[in-house]
Design goal:
Elements: E1 5-6, E2 17-19, E3 29-33, H1 35-41, H2 50-58, E4 69-71, E5 75-77, E6 80-82, E7 90-97, E8 103-109, E9 124-125, H3 126-141, E10 148-161, E11 163-174, H4 180-187, H5 192-206, H6 216-241, E12 243-244, E13 266-267, H7 291-310, H8 314-325, H9 328-343, H10 354-370, H11 375-385, H12 393-396, H13 402-417, H14 423-431, H15 441-454, H16 458-467
Antiparallel strand pairs: 1-7, 2-4, 3-10, 5-6, 7-8, 8-11, 9-11, 10-11, 12-13
Helix pairs in contact: 3-15, 3-16, 4-5, 4-7, 5-7, 6-7, 6-8, 6-9, 7-8, 10-13, 11-14, 15-16
Length: 497
């Protein structure tokens, strides 16, 4: 039933990882299983055995052909370097080849206390496991590069997080678990051979076109540029959805350009660029507005690890990497502008200038900020407003002051007129990129509370069903589109998986 493993990372030298078998749990129960993803990965669903799957996804049984291991990595956490982090509670079973010929990692999170646990218990609470399952799968449907959730299993055991809470194990699927912090682990030790091996692996796995570059220095510089481009795309899409990762440490930055390690993450409701969701981010380092520039900071740390590969002369290597890093702002700006134009029904072809469209977008965001408007609903109601002046009332009702948004809409209509496209077609295009439903924090928390306190997974399953079709507005799901009432606002979330 389990697809065949391809053990690429397990064949790396021992300093890259530690062999570690998952620690069995008391009484596992499979509470979520992603059948479409399992089919993508090559699982034999006709022969699906729920009991056997529960044993696999809990860590009670190692699938045939797997070689479980905990990966080594370092990382900058809130700007401070920690030379040894690693998979403290995660176990990589191995890689499988999916139906499109891509290698995909399969990893268990919460599978026991590995040698990298640093005093932790190696387990995961049910709440964060279900949060990652919900939000990562929502991100997939919303068009954001992301790790995926294959299964969630309760363990029948309690873990202590201030108070005893139910334990769980998440099965996560990723293009890889190579992080900026993976490269930092070896660079900090002066192990250039290991950095080169990682870089070659990253090229083979994620950027195969770069293998044709004959000059090693040019090849590794091109790797840096390619990773930078994917990070720009990723963060631009976060920004277009009001998503806040919460902990953009370098150990949480994927070389593959996927969203990874969903901890204190959430989607902003009332638009405020300074919004923070991490309970420990007291200085706002990872606030919504800072995300593009933190990504650039992280990329600078990645470049530092590659310097010996880019050029034998350190200063020349620094100069060459710096020239690439200087292009990040323009690359990100182009990605962000494309995302935001699509949200407003605008095309580059009909633009008078990038600066004019940027000004129009920034004016809307300022009106949303001063008007305390909901991010997701504003853009969704703009889809209706695109059809004509008679459809503006619900949009204007989102703002505490009507005049600024009314003035902005008049300017926007003038810009839309240059598109030369029927208003109904523009509205349809906008509805395809502006979701009606996101994982609103109060809905997520309610689903988690029911699962944790009452072992009732129906709210979780219902929310998963709503989020599976986020762009299709349906009357029976109207409540899921609404922001939390003021008394139910959840302003901070915590790491836990």
């Amino acid at each position: 039933m389990f697809p065949e493993f391809t053990l690429r990372y397990a064949h790396f030298p021992e300093r890259f990882h530690t062999r570690f078998d998952p620690v069995p749990v008391k009484s596992p129960r499979l509470v979520a299983f992603n059948r479409p993803l399992a089919e993508e990965l090559g699982f034999d669903l006709i022969a699906f055995d729920a009991t056997l799957a529960t044993d696999w996804f809990s860590g009670n049984r190692v699938p045939e052909g797997a070689a479980p291991l905990a990966q080594a990595y370092a990382g900058h956490q809130f700007g401070h370097f920690n030379p040894r982090l690693g998979d403290g509670r995660a176990v990589l079973l191995g890689e499988v080849t999916d139906g499109e010929g891509r290698l995909r990692d399969i990893q268990l999170k919460g599978a026991g206390c590995t040698p990298f646990s640093r005093g932790g218990d190696g387990r995961a609470p049910l709440g964060p496991v279900l949060r990652e399952y919900l939000i990562s799968e929502a991100m997939q449907v919303l068009g954001v590069p992301t790790t995926r959730a294959l299964a969630a299993v309760t363990t029948g055991e309690r873990v202590i997080r201030g108070v005893p809470v139910p334990g769980a194990v998440l099965t996560r699927v990723a293009s890889s678990h190579l992080r900026i912090g993976t490269f930092q682990f070896f660079a900090a030790q002066g192990d250039s051979e290991a950095v080169k091996r990682l870089a070659d692996h990253a090229i083979e796995r994620h950027y195969p076109a770069l293998a044709d570059i004959a000059s090693p220095g040019e090849r590794y510089l091109a790797l840096f540029e390619a990773v930078q481009a994917r990070q720009a795309v990723l963060v631009a899409r976060w920004m277009g959805l009001g998503f806040i990762h919460g902990v953009m440490n370098t150990d949480n930055a994927s070389i593959a350009g996927e969203t990874i390690d969903y901890g204190p993450c959430a989607f902003m409701e009332r638009y405020d660029p300074a919004t923070v969701f991490s309970s420990i981010d007291e200085g706002g380092r990872y606030a919504y507005t800072n995300q593009p520039w933190i990504a650039q900071w992280n990329l600078a740390r990645f470049a530092e690890t590659l310097l010996p590969l880019i050029d034998d002369d350190q200063q020349r290597g620094i100069d060459r990497a710096t020239e690439v890093l200087k292009t990040y702002a323009a690359v990100y700006e182009a990605e962000w502008l494309a995302v935001m134009r699509a949200k407003l029904g605008l095309s580059e072809a009909a633009a008078g200038s990038d600066s004019a469209d940027r000004g129009l977008i920034e004016s809307l965001l300022e009106a949303m900020h001063t008007g305390r408007a909901d991010f997701t609903l504003t853009f969704r109601r703009l889809c209706d407003a695109a059809e004509g002046e008679g459809h503006e009332s619900e949009l204007v009702a989102l703002f505490e002051r009507a005049e600024p948004i009314q003035a902005w809409v008049a300017e926007w209509r003038q810009r839309l007129a240059r598109e030369g496209v029927a208003v109904g077609e523009i509205a349809q295009q906008m509805r395809a990129v502006n979701p009606a439903y996101i994982p609103r924090n109060h809905r997520v928390e309610a689903a988690l509370a029911a699962a944790i306190d009452e072992e009732d997974f129906a709210p979780f399953e219902r929310l998963m069903q709503v989020l599976a079709r986020p762009f299709e507005e349906r009357a029976e799901h109207a409540d899921y589109a609404q922001p939390a009432p003021p008394t139910a606002q959840v302003f901070r979330t915590f790491c836990g998986t």
